[in-house]
Amino acid sequence: MTELVSNQLNSKDKENSVEILCIGSELLLGSILNSNAKWLAEQLASIGLEHFRQTVVGDNLERIKQTIQEISNRSRILITTGGLGPTPDDLTTEAIATAFNTRLVESKEILIDLEEKYKLSSEKMPTINKTQALHPEGADLIQNPTGTAPGIIWDPKPGFTIISLPGVPSEMEKMFSINAINWLKSNLLIKDVIMSKTLKFTGISESSLAEKVGDIMSGENPTIAPYASLGEVKLRITAKAKNHRDAKKLIMPIETKLLKIGKKFYFGSNDETLASVVIKSLKEHSETISIAESCTGGALGAALTSIPGASDVFLGGVIVYSNWIKHHFLGVPLDMLERNGAVSSSVAKEMAKRVREKFQTDWGLAITGIAGPAGGTQDKPVGLVHFGIASQSIIKSIQVNFSSHKTREEIQQLSVIRSLDLLRLFMHNQS
After folding, report:
1. Is the pLDDT score of 113 beyond 70?
2. Residues 200, 209: contact at Cβ < 8 Å?
3. Same domain, yes or no, for 298 and 420?
4. At 370, is the secondary structure helix, strand, or coil?
5. Most buried among 5, 350, 408, 413, by the most CB within 10 A?
6. Where is the signal peptide (predicted)?
7. DSSP assignment of 250-302, as one string?
8. Which of residues 153, 187, 221 is at a domain's end?
9. Are 148 and 117 in contact (CB under 8 A)?
10. Torsion-angle region of residue 311: left (phi > 0), alpha (psi -120 to 50) or beta?
């Protein structure tokens, strides 16, 4: 079991304190990412509820029971996810009941709902699924519109409520949004809302960006927190106010200052990605793009096609991995490949130019490099990548030497990020 933030709550904190308990050995083993805790934290913050702990516990009845009892003594609300299935390792409902010496009772309504769902799938309901109709006596049930695991809202003792939800993210999110969030708003005295906006930057390190923004980060409301991931730095601005309008007013001047400082490194906010920003910009300019990839092996195309509506502007791409394909399919001159090598400025430009001509697009974008872990030389080390970009008026190449200490996957991912940012900057300078 792991815990985040272990501050002891005082009586004032407990008034609206919420804890999240995610149940499942697969989470502890790292088999799946705990996206439920992240999503729930965002939803709680959006309605002004802060939570002080997130706990993960495996599929063990006694440990789940003990954790629930501990939380009941320090917090007002417990939200659990996972462990509501029909198999023997799904122990959440039983643990909740035994934690408060309450018997389990069967819900005929849930049982009928389960049987109907199986009829719709032309399958007989397994006997084992009947356990999902059990709930602690006195608990209110939350119907599951898409799955078989119902949830509960229950006050096992004064001043403490358990909201239990399935572990399947799509089911959990829908049930929380339809039922749980309304209960929280109706039953808790929520004085303020918490609003966040995340600004995203690339081409600059976390420390360099933090140094640039300097004193702006020292404020108490709004607060600014930096987060770094591979090839990207985020600055999250968080404000607390009486309502969303006032919170937005607090965020806006800070956002303006940060964007002025970040300048060309800023590419989007919140859920935007470099790929979505590029697709949006292409649509706004009524322009199209095609791509030629070597060391990224299709990752750039995958990034672009992950965006809905990409087909309006992304006409296609090719993976030209060998020199033979670069020459015979794209038309890169053989003597250029032999003289300069596939990983070179001239070949990157030629790839971008040729793919643009072949697909008849406004832009051509190309990547050729050494992703490793082998294949590098003293002159061309692992991590060396050339990017080519071509339009009617531009044929350029950019050389980047990513660290040879990066893994193959990291070099490939960084190459995708840099190529998209390269296109973004060229399009921005053109407009």
Report:
1. yes
2. no
3. yes
4. coil
5. 350
6. none
7. HHHHHHHHHHHHHGGGEEEETT--HHHHHHHHHHHHT--EEEEESTTTTHHHH
8. 187
9. yes
10. alpha
Indicate whether 69 and 84 sit together in one domain.
yes
Beta strands at 193-201 and 160-165: parallel, antiparallel or unpaired:
unpaired
Tokens of 181: 């969030």
Q: Is 400 helix (H, G, I), strand (E, B) or coil?
A: strand
CA atoms lying within 13 Å on the CB side of residue 49: 29
Amino acid code (one letter) for 243: N
Instruction: Output the domain CATH number for residue 401.
Output: 3.90.950.20
List the 232-241 sheet strands across, edge first. 223-229, 232-241, 193-201, 266-269
Tens digit of each residue's pLDDT (9 = 90 or more) over 296-339? 999 999 999 999 999 999 999 999 999 999 999 999 999 999 99
Q: Can you give the residue range of the structural domain that contains 110?
A: 2-187
Say how many domains are in the chain.
3
Helix, strand, coil proportions of the chain in percent (round to 5)?
Answer: 45, 25, 30
Burial class (CB in 10 A: 0-12, 13-18, 19+), 294: buried
- At which residue do the structure tokens 């090598």 appear? 341
Residue 157's nearest CA partner among 69, 54, 65, 57 is 69
Q: How far is CA 181 from CA 153, 193, 242, in A?
A: 11, 14, 18
Q: Which helix (H) or strand (E) holds 211?
A: helix 206-213
CA distance 406 to 328: 32
Instruction: Determine phi and psi for 54, rounding to 5 degrees.
Output: -125, 130
Q: 375 and 341 in one domain?
A: yes
Q: Are residues 280 and 234 in the same domain?
A: no
Assess whether 250 and 379 both reside in one domain: no
Instruction: Centre a 10 Å sphere on the Cβ of residue 168 and count the other Cβ atoms it contains.
Output: 20
Retrieve residue 253's tokens. Answer: 């001047």
The answer to whether 144 and 175 have CB atoms below 8 angstroms apart is yes
Both 390 and 264 in one domain: the answer is no
List, in sequence order, the alpha helices (H) in 288-400.
299-305, 323-325, 334-340, 345-359
Q: How far is the C-alpha of 194 from the C-alpha of 199, rounded, in Å?
A: 17
* Residue 371 token pair: 């992703």
Q: Do 234 and 144 reside in the same domain of the chain?
A: no
Instruction: Give the domain CATH number at 67.
Output: 3.40.980.10
Which tokens sit at 269?
A: 């906010």
DSSP 3-state of 137: coil
For the cut 80, the answer to whether the pLDDT of residue 7 exceeds it is no
